[in-house]
Specification:
Elements lengths: L1 H10 L6 H28 L5 H24 L8 H29 L4 H23 L3
Length: 141
């Protein structure tokens, strides 16, 4: 019963608790990562699109999924009431993350010789912290 109550608290009610927000952001990031990673794979392997172009498209798909998850499940308060402004700032942060993603994927794949999917895993680890901290500070205080 206690585990059920903890699970309900972790997943249901919005909270200002930083740990809880981080946990939920990670869950949302995991869901977004599934969209991002699978899109990268499908576009590259079956669409025959160069991996860095696929990575950019896939990153944007994952970012859209994460935005929707973030506003509904992660952050209870918003800095901006104007949703267009909020999404614009969210997208600008994402564009910086996209640039970081492209540079890291290129570095790990072209310079280090890793497979592009492994490079994506490594890049995601770096970018997760950038996205959470800047979005938390600028958008969802």
């Amino acid at each position: 019963m206690e585990k059920l109550l903890l699970l309900k608290k972790l997943s249901y009610k919005k909270s200002q608790n930083l740990f809880l927000q981080s946990f939920r952001y990670a869950v949302g990031g995991g869901i977004a990562f599934v969209f991002d990673f699978s899109s990268l794979y499908l576009l590259t392997q079956y669409g025959h699109i160069y991996y860095l172009f696929s990575a950019a498209i896939a990153y944007m798909i994952g970012s859209a999924v994460h935005y929707i998850f973030s506003i509904f499940a992660v952050f209870p308060s918003r800095t901006y009431e104007n949703r267009t402004l909020e999404f614009t700032i969210f997208a600008l942060i994402g564009l910086i993350g996209l640039g970081m993603n492209e540079i890291l994927m290129w570095f790990f794949t072209a310079k280090m010789g890793y497979h592009y999917l492994y490079s994506k895993l490594l890049a995601t680890c770096f970018i997760f912290f950038w996205n959470f901290s800047t979005r938390k500070f600028l958008l969802f205080r």
